[in-house]
């Protein structure tokens, strides 16, 4: 090994804490890159393989009922490669030992095993046999959650008849990678199951001989990216059978959620590492400039001895490269581990056949390269500074540090009022500009990250509270299969334990205004309803007009309508006659494209006296009625789905909130590393630079704590300014994310950041103080007499 | 023993004569640098011409009307004025002068560390003042050895490693162990600078300069930071480098007594040479006092 490399190694070793401070920030940057990148690829690969395995449909058409012979025309459409008609129904499930009703999706499968679109992957047991007609394959998560195994019998309420089914196996399918039930947005394996039954069984039970109510299709690769044309033509072809929905893969709920998550990973995989690496490069710069300063005589000597500029530059650059290589490797290892954790977490709410954390050699190589590049960038300035030193400096003693007045001193009225330590701190902060800039930048980024992370956390829980405390106030929601009359409402009101019941009337329809058209739905609610209170973004109840519609702003924008305009709506069910109706009100709401109307107005519009598609219940709190209530609900033939608010809230909290807390905890921890590392770095560098000064102070009778307090003042100043700068930046970043997520589905509420700001100030102070304790320890241990004796 | 190269034997002989304190003047022929033409263009230029002149002329360096002005904002300081000087092969030159008289500046110019504002400097028959930065680096690497007032050892390297800093970039280095033996520090090879006295550090610094096997040894107040006895020892090493190894040695000092060991003495005052004389009978360092 070259002797200069030995010097380098020894220097690296003796730099200790400083290196750790810089290295950990850089390592976290690389690990964020690696972890998010790996998780992104894990999910993408798993998704691709799974979709290919199951032959995931590129589109689906929901119909009321259509003969198989007539849907075959869809296969002839240009771009359509293959179709699969199937029967799909909702059902309520009655499990022994489970009081609450369970929702089920019943899907027909070929009697004999063969490859179909949206196929299943068997997990336990086997496929249907010839032994009986009433065999069922359950989705695996549901079976596991409810402890149902092949060989057991279960009961389903299908088409108003109680059916007994024999479980032959469990399976998963890519169309339910992310399986959520009505009224929820997180999976609840216990309360929602998928039941695959034989084609012949489904035909018989639902009276669907030779018919289907859903068509799945696969498209040629050339049109896969733009399925709209195919769907439009399919809708026209099948119009007479009532197209309830035409959904391209892009909008398929499970796929949309998964793809959103994957896209988010990619976006964060760029932003977060970039922040860390920028901070790391800057902090390393401070360290390297110090090193260059410290080694001016060594550099001069090397030059005098005949070392070329290039050789010396390279020597100093290697320091940064070594830090970069080390951090890069550590970051990759940490990243791999984090990716494992993230992937395991994804595995809890995405159902994949094998979602595994793979090792990506190229990501490791790239991570290492990023580390090296960052190290090089961080040491470039210092190394160049070295080059600018004249070789003759080796001959001269070090000039005294450039003193002189700082800007603030030109304002004597203020300056004179400051205490001596405050003046010293200010002078130092202003004189070492690079260090101050790096400290402020690092603290600002740390604050930005934590403000953003905490705001997202608060916003999520605000959103959950808003939805389940303010808007949806019922305990149990019943959804009916078809439109019911007033009697259904009355019947629900008489159920045991029910205090209060309110009807809902949902109409799914196509809205048209000029050339703008969209599928959607109108929710008709009772005037003065108390169990469902649509609200604006301020939390104020929306005033439902007596006549006309209330549109949320997003929907109004999509249709380009203003208050007073008339829009055309055509129901997707029933007679499907077009009607014109006035937009009476437009309001902001977190729930994207909702449209509301008075239930009486809507019923009249649909030529009904009072139509009901769902009932919301408020039940007594004592709970003694529960068994009776649920038993009766399970027997209601008209009920298609039941949602229990407490269950939904529980599953939301369990999955969404809990997982988010892990993410946020990590992010805050990472931000802490930035605060800690940057304060540690800048204080230790400052301490090294001013050893002589510290020694002199000690001779004058200053204690170690008093000396420490001088350094603390500087840290507080830079860290404090940085944090203050970071607070609005974090809010801005959050604002950007909120705007980016302003999708049709929902909007993230912006919340008042004051509370979060205080928390982040506290965090910055805590991490900064922790770093200062390390510095204080160095001050205590410093051999200051020695510092007085030795020359620089 | 048979396998040993003549070169190595020669060095060996050198080292022995050195350590035994044998004052016999070694034949210049066998001590002169083996400066064969080198592959690299500019280096070969410097060096091949150096070689061709080595025996012919005894003038190693010539300064013609050299001036140096430092500009600091509006003020400019004339540090050197009209300096004319010839440095001959294998002599000890002492530069005397009070602090601030421009001695170090002069030495830096000679050593290729600093540029002139005026005049020209010749190394053999090559104009140094016209050297490119790369040529200057080669000049420093191959021709010059520096000994600093404050030793300037690399703190993180041991004595041996500090010498290796020189040998690793040099074309024809001495053996590291031999260089250390020359200065009598073989037993301290593993010590770090912080574990050595000033005199020992200065000897490592001399070993580092000698290990490159340079033609010219430039010493800026080499005894300035040392006590009396140690100073004398170091002086002895430097004089021997000239007398036994055939180096040209330039010693800067503000101490007139030290000048007694030199073959030639110049005196600087306010950047001008105010006196120059030959010293036909230099005193051995042991006999002078200050
Ligand atoms: N880089 C420089 N910039 C400005 N002035 C300098 C510089 N180097 C040396 N000087 C000045 O030049 C004069 C001579 O310096 P120097 O050669 O170091 O003197 P000596 O070595 O004889 O003490 C001094 O007055 C010194 O202040
Ligand atoms: Mg000097």
Description:
- The complex is a heterodimer of chains A (792) and B (290).
- Chain A has 792 residues and is of the alpha+beta class.
- Helix content of chain A is 52%, strand content 19%.
- In chain A, strands 3-4-9-6-8-7 form a six-stranded mixed β-barrel.
- The two termini of chain A are 27 Å apart.
- Helix content of chain B is 33%, strand content 24%.
- Chain B has a six-stranded mixed sheet with strand order 6-7-8-3-9-10, sandwiched between helices. A four-stranded antiparallel sheet of chain B has the order 2-1-4-5.
- The longest helix of chain B is centred in the C-terminal third of the chain and has 16 residues, at 228-243.
- Chain B has helices spanning 6-19, 28-31, 41-54, 103-110, 133-142, 159-167, 176-182, 198-211, 228-243, and strands at residues 59-72, 75-88, 92-96, 118-123, 126-127, 144-147, 216-220, 248-253, 264-269, 272-278.
- With 290 residues, chain B is an alpha/beta fold.
- Chain B is globular, with a radius of gyration of 18 Å.
- Chains A and B meet through helix 1 and helix 7 of A and helix 4, helix 5 and helix 6 of B.
- Bound molecules: adenosine-5'-diphosphate (ADP) and magnesium ion.
- Magnesium ion binds at residues 103-104, 220 of chain B.
